[in-house]
Amino acid sequence: MGRLAFPLDAELTGPDRVVLSILQKQYEAHGDPLDKASSEVAEESDDSETKHSKFVSPSPEDLQDQEQQAIAYLKNSNNPKSDAFEPTIFSSVDEPDIKNALLRQWIIDPYIRWARTVVRVETDVVMVTHLLLYSCTTLPSALYLFKNFHWWHAILHGVMQGWYMGAYTLLRHQHIHMRGVLSKKYAIIDQLFPYVLDPLMGHTWNSYYYHHVKHHHVEGNGPDDLSSTVRYQRDDVWDFMRYVGRFYFLIWFDLPRYFLRTRKPVLAFKAGGWELSSYAFLYIMFAYVNAPAAVFVLFVPLALMRLALMTGNWGQHALVDEMEPDSDFRSSITLIDVPSNRYCYNDGYHTSHHLNPLRHWRDHPVAFLSQKKQYADEHALVFYNIDYMFLTINLLRKNYEHVARCLVPMGDQMKLTLEERAEMLKRKTRKFTEEEIAEKWGKQYAKLK
């Protein structure tokens, strides 16, 4: 039988555990060609108390029935009218796991009832939780640093922001795609909070919206995408540094130029205007208010965020199919892991997001299960036990064997040995020549001499 190389993380979200359980059972029902060493790793990682001497593969009918039950369960957990409805309250703790009766009666349940009226989608109570958290910690901390700067406070503030920035960015990711996350009653707060919090979290005003929604999702990692990976060798450190460096120093120029080239002058003016106005704000805060505070509160988060954004995007689009690189199934990946999905609003379901950018973050697991056969038929890549940052790091270290062990095989991938999987992944990091770009996307995209 097939076995995944690592045990399932105990911190996986409920939906992720359901999805991975279905994929695991499907793989177990299939013969495993992996070498003996891989099997031994899996055996050692089995934390169950009982070792079963015999495995009975479930029938296809059993698997299909379990899959349909899982889809129904996930849909009900997202449906406010269902008795099985489960809003997300906190990132670190699931709502059913909060057992204390007094805490539930006097704090948690009243808070949930109120917060469900604040958010646009009732599952998203966690967004209110996070906005309240930032308002009570980030904002007063930043203001006090500008008033009375201390080095120890600045360092602690930086550590706190480093913890917050990933989750905030994915909250904003939902915000820019849905044009808001709060109900109409709170529309003013919904529109204004990004202008207050974005600079504190390493973002320039509105740049995320113009680059991600109006540009990245239009080009889809194709040759005209400014964050495209296809012209880079994606396991090469030097190419990665060039990729990050271009975004770091030239995005203020490249994005407006892209909009002008594609005959969208209004977007060019807005994108350039907001980026430059953000730089002007940073300069004023540094030159005329409090330079040390500006460095720690504004400049350090900006530097870290831009590195994180490009490192993450490299991981999301590092493995591009050599045959159909313009396919959303084959130019992006799916991660079923804790950092991406528990703490960052299901960011691991990147293929699902590219298939439907307007899909709500809680709908990704059920959408994935519903399209599982198509994912398998399209040779999509699904991983677990690794996030985008560590995927990027492992690729740059050329540690393909570890990445291959993190693969959750689907369809024909189940027939591959570990070495064959590693070789397959290696092929998908090779940069495309201009001739290949002309062949795959069209001559208008290639820089042919």
From TrEMBL:
Pfam families in the record: FA_desaturase (PF00487)
Keyword Protease: no
InterPro entries: FA_desaturase_dom
Cytoplasm found in the keyword field: no
GO BP field: lipid metabolic process
Record-annotated membrane-spanning stretches: 151-171, 243-260, 280-304
Keywords attached to this entry: Membrane, Transmembrane, Transmembrane helix
Disordered: annotated segments: 31-62
Domain Fatty acid desaturase residues, every copy: 151-368
Protein name: Fatty acid desaturase domain-containing protein
Species: Cucurbitaria berberidis CBS 394.84
